[in-house]
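seq/struct pair 1
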Amino acid sequence: METLPADQILDGLSTAVLLVELDGSVHYVNGAAQILLAASAERVRGRRTDELLGIGAPLQAALAATGERRSTTLRELTLKQSIDGHALVVDCTVSPFGWVGDGELALVELVRVDHLSRFTLETRSQERHAVSTMLIDRLAHEIKNPLGGLRGAAQLLDRELPDRESREYTRIIMHEADRLSALVDRMTGPFTTREKTCFNLHAVLEHVRRLTLADVQEGLTFSRDYDPSIPEIMGDREQLIQAVLNIVRNGVQAMDGRGEIGLLTRIRRQFTLGNRRHRHVLEARISDNGPGIPADIRENVFFPMVSGRSGGAGLGLSIAQDIVSRHGGAIECMSQPGDTRFSLYLPVEEPS
């Protein structure tokens, strides 16, 4: 059997791997490591690991241990590299590799654990969404039953009333009952493919921005950081407008209408949503500099009936999560005083 070259084997791995000389100089980097570090092999080769990764002393000690044929695993290290402010947190395993020419090499494996944490959070989010959907379905059932009785009573009353002016009020009741019933059907019904269109995510964000500024005319500002290279997506534009509007309104209400809303877009490559890996995923990040989500509801913020405001219905974020999920995406939330961020991840449909 023919033996494959080591670099060909390493390039076939999905794990990020570097071959490093014991003084810390990078000898080789595989394809997965180039994606992780967002740098080509030419840019990485020959650089020192402390400069490239920012780990420093712990990695140097692990490299020294390979001279004694020992492997070392360093847990949850934060790398110097980051993607748009998102730190890379990795588990790093350093093992003896062998000699190349006159130099001894160590094999450095980097496994992202922040991805695993995000996957765990996303799984929990999906579980919460399933519970939320069940609660919304039951709530819809409880709403539609009295609506039907209300409409029926108004219809009977309409037949008994003698004058046209009085019947006008009963017809308003019937019309509003029909409207609410149709709204409940749209919220709980299937996401039909006939509603999908091709559009730019920036158009959705800008529409929401204009709506919000028309409603809150003083004390509120928007900052925008858009990636002009993002591709168009397929989906229901009106529903996504509603999802973004719900999140923005939550931020505006939390700040009592005075503060800054941030809108940011980025394209993520080789990004996992649920159990599926996508070549391209769009991120829309909506942030505010308000007081933050109260700690006691932060984990359950996407559940219906959970609200940080007195008198709040607690449906806006639950509906937003449902809309994004129907598009095959996910929502993440991070909040602390002065910085609350909702990140919407939407997969880009690849041309067939």
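seq/struct pair 2
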Amino acid sequence: MLLLTGVAPAPWKAATTPAAGADPVVSEHFGTPVTDPYRHLESLDDPHVQAWLRQQADASAAIFAAIPGRESLLARIRDFERAVAFTVTQPQRLSSGDIFFLKQAADEDVARLWVREADTAADRMLIDPDTLPRANADQHVAMDCFSASPNGRHVLYTCAADGSEQNAIRVFDRRLGSHLPDLIERVETVYAPPCWLDDGSGFVYSQIRQLDANQPEADCYRFTQARLHRLGTDPTHDPHVFGSESAGSPPLKALDFPAVVITPGSAWAVGQVRHGDETDLTLYAAAVASLGDVDVAWKKVCDRRDAVLSFAVAGDAILLVTTGGPAHAVVRVDLAAPAFAEAETIFAPTDMVVETVATARDAIYIEAIDHAIRRVVRLPYAPAPSDRAGASAGRARAAVVATPPDEPSATIAAARADVPGVLLKTQSWIRAGGLNVFDPQTGRLTDARLAPEGREPPEWLTFTETIVESHDGTRVPLSIIHRADLVRDGSRPALLEGYGAYGFTFPMSFTPHRLAWLERGGVIAVAHVRGGGTFGRAWHHAGRRTTKPNTWKDFIACAEHLIAEGYTSSQRLCGQGRSAGGILIGRAVTERPDLFAAAHIGVGCTDMIRFETTKNGPPNIPEFGAVTEEEGFRGLLEMSTLHQIRDGAAYPAVLLTHGINDPRVAPWQSAKTAARFQEATSSGKPVLLRIDYHAGHGLGSTRRQRQEELADIWSFFLWQCGDPDFQPASGDHE
């Protein structure tokens, strides 16, 4: 174990990075003036703004290159990742026994699409993204999602260039070994992955509108439409089957996301409506055979007030995860005559929070959260109606799928209504685990032999689960990964990360590159703050809109715990949040700058007053609030890092990273926040802006990009924590 000797970070000259030049714009909201000193940086096409961004990016790159330990740290990150021969994600099984999956070898930058053919048990690569068309040689293309037709002959997939998430559907014919001419642009896949018809003749998908040149980008997600494509036909003539432009469709609002879900073996299609980024769904049902008809009859299954989080279809029934109670529950509704008020509760746990439900040929499989651990519960299909006894009988029939003792957390990797059993991913914070087949006949897990076997964790590695009391007495779970021989004397660098939005919960998981930090004696901690879903809907709603301060206050409480318990000290504590987690870390730093040595804000939401003007801003109103409403404005101002930065405050070192092609959080959010921190801080510590010109929000980045970014972030942290191996020589960074 490498020991720190308490070296002070090498001094920093703020003049290293160019000043943006403030040009204040003042707006008034409900009687409150709000100053925006860097509004001009929102004009990313302006040559002066482009030049400033390049100067910031070049200055940051030069500084990272001057940190002496960076290259050796990058080498260790690569060593640990190369030790895993390949990774497998998104496995899909067909009733034929064929298994499709994305596979990325240790020396490959992006994942390829493979199939394991049942008749030969051999693996065959189908699609290599490196061979797909691109605008220029500097671009890279990455696959987003894929789906095989029920008979396995065709595979549709989506891909985009340079992390832009501007996804297009292409279709590959396995029999011919070539692509079909079918090509569909502007496909929405986050909430609406494409679904095949049972006969494989076509598929349903959701498409984002094409904006005119004079339309604001904030209109991008207005009036998204679900459409039906038949193979071999012109996609421009694809009929609208669900959405505001579809005949027979229920009325939808402009920012609703419509999608159609088709389940193998069911005659019913589900019309799913997501209301922006709200978690509560509205669902409808119609006969699959009627899709595209002018008189299609969509019947309402549930509304927003019914608090349905997720669903799955089994024949003529739909299974809904409802979040009305503390632990959530699974209820059953008849699709032929849906009536939510008469829904039958089939599973209502008392000690776990149900999150998702899936159907297989043999049973219902339920994924639930148990603090940091995820459990998978198998619930056999109900007996005859006369034998039913409601939720208590469901609990009696249900059984948690047993996992290996050293891999307690399980997630459903693949389930299909016409295939028995499921594929499960099992792991822990310190063990990679593997992909396993659950056999309903034996009740046992066996290695699917799709991915390398989980390697034994280093014997020096362990983790601790604890509970921290927050500012208002709420008990917040905290997961701490560290060396078993850690001496808690406050001398270790610690990385505390959190998110706290959309009800998302950090799953217990292992990533090999973490070992490069941990082997040096560093600590990694995950704060399960409010705004996430650790304890269900109430936990989520206790950290959004006007209750959002709980998110960063929970994070601060976890930081204080790490310091009080000797895991680290304020001189060596580094905080991190990405995307919506940028609110968490940005406000933690601005509220308690004394707690942190350094902070990383990755593709972060940091200007919440102007977020609604961006492409992805309007769909986020349900989560964060509307600036046009007084209560919403007050909440947004409070959570907006940019507007909470105070002149003369002694802020820790701050690194902001962003991909220039980010479609979810506009890069100017990081630009404006970096400029404001650089102007305001009195600590003399660095504030850097790292821009990747071939990346977006992180999805679609190459392995090399992720490794380089990680080496920059951790080198920056270790420099600021005083690690003697990461101190630039005098003048190297001035």
